[in-house]
Write a structure and sequence with these properties.
This is 3-hydroxyacyl-[acyl-carrier-protein] dehydratase FabZ. The chain is of the alpha+beta class. Helix content is 15%, strand content 42%. The relative contact order is 0.21.
Length: 143
């Protein structure tokens, strides 16, 4: 069961269609940890060109999905309400498993470090419990 649906997510982060890339938040401790879901439908716009003969989820969009989940977590803190989280860096990115239309991505981000308006999240995207993408994402909270 969703803790936050897409309409509630839109109240926290500024992303909108076609670039709101998370469908729901299923677990969250604001500022600490989040688990979100993305249901990859066969008609997602990127599958038409990546690749027409064998649709594959672009790894960079999976990283963006993780960043959006992390932004929901960071911006859910009362002191960050109404602010924007900017993507500031990606480290240690590994693409471990092919992700395809019909898969459900589980997006987990744990905020492991914060200093002032800068934070770092340990991020994992998985399908059926198997890691597909892992990375560390750095974000900056702006006004």
């Amino acid at each position: 069961m969703a803790l936050l649906n897409q309409e509630q997510i839109k109240e926290i982060i500024p992303h909108r269609d076609p670039f709101l890339l998370i469908d729901e938040v299923v677990e969250m401790e604001p500022g600490v940890r989040v688990v979100a879901k993305k249901y990859l439908k066969p008609d997602e716009f990127w599958f038409k060109g990546h690749f027409p003969q064998e649709p594959v989820q672009p790894g960079v969009l999976t990283v963006e999905m993780l960043a959006q989940a992390g932004a929901v977590c960071a911006l859910s803190l009362p002191e960050n309400k109404g602010k924007i989280a900017y993507f500031a860096g990606i480290d240690k990115a590994k693409f471990r498993k092919k992700v395809v239309p019909g898969d459900t991505l589980t997006l987990e981000v744990e905020i492991i470090k914060t200093r002032g308006s800068i934070g770092v999240g340990k991020a994992t995207a998985s399908v059926d419990g198997k890691r597909a993408v892992t990375c560390e994402i750095t974000f900056a909270i702006g006004a």
